[in-house]
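Example 3.2
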Amino acid sequence: MIEYRSIRVGLLGAGSVGSQVARLLLEHGDELAHRIGARIELVGIAVRDLEARRDVDLPRELLTTDADELIIGSDIVIELMGGLEPARTLVLKAIAAGADVVTGNKALLATHGPELYAAAEQVGAQLSYEAAVAGAIPIIRPLRESLAGDRIERILGIVNGTTNFILDRMDTTGASLEDALATATELGYAEADPTADIGGYDAAQKAAILASIAFHTSVPVEAVHREGITGVTAEQVESARRAGFVVKLLAICERLVDAETGEEGVSARVYPALVPREHPLGAVRGANNAVFVEASAAGPLMFYGAGAGGVQTASAVLGDLVAIARRHVVGGPGTAESTHAEMPVFEIGRITTRYAITLEVADEPGVLERIAHVFAEHDVSVEQLQQTVSEGSERATLVIGTHQATESALAETVASLAENPVVVSVASVLRVEGAL
């Protein structure tokens, strides 16, 4: 029987993920010890309420409400409380006390990441956070390590399972957003207050984290352009389906060069977009997540799997824990964050994209000419146009697909169209992403 030294682990939080992490540590301790060369000793679990019902029956003697005391007695601290405070304060205390930290807290990293990274680097501690983006899918470590020597050009990600479930249901059943959201809530995919998901806030936090790693640049969440799916209609989804597209909420992180100034920068943005059905992201169904990486040398890479779930996300937490614990065995400082490039973060108007615009217009002579004139005024060229006229109606429907242009030019074009007297309404505007 091999005798292993013990590495003390303190767990902050025993929710759906934290309770599964505790269960796996207790059930698979021997197996983990063989992998690490040291025994993981779960010394305590800090919770707000000792009597709260939990997904897993945890040993009562491990539960405590004294997070500070638990931190002091731990070599590695796992933070799964969520939210900004007291999570930020406790993580900083853990680092200051000489502990390494594993966290799955996307909001904390997106808001206070640079402060936490600097604190960890100053003392040689390791801060790992694979579980913060895309649940069980390994994407943080590949970006930080496997692709660290490559030049990442672009990331397209479906990183919120709730919105993907909703949009997928709208696509496959014809349901309205409201009905699809109700189903997601009933099945447990959506919270009672779904604002963070359908408003794009959750995806924006993850986009900030991905962009910071991919481009070695601090990208604050406030710099991420955010649009949710609340304006997506069943008619838009059906129109996309007929045209060979699917609507997805995308987190897009991109390396850009400003055409006018030659300045290199990055863009991070979240919005619903049309994705070709034959694109790998177009086939991501249900509540799954996927991240599509375009790298200069490695080429296109796809990471796909469960983006949420207690036991699935616990897998990512334990992966970080094992890696950190191995470092405790062999020695050496933690891996610091690489943000030395510090490129500027471009605002949305400087990106280049394509639009699909649906207009309701008067059915009269000269309309197409006047519409074309609006596009020409803003140096936006039309790639394709479809016109539908209902019998007996005085209106026509135009679906216009543009060539690539700057976001600012496309937005100005749409604004001018809305003011044009021959345009009854701008029924739909969606960006087109992921062209193969």
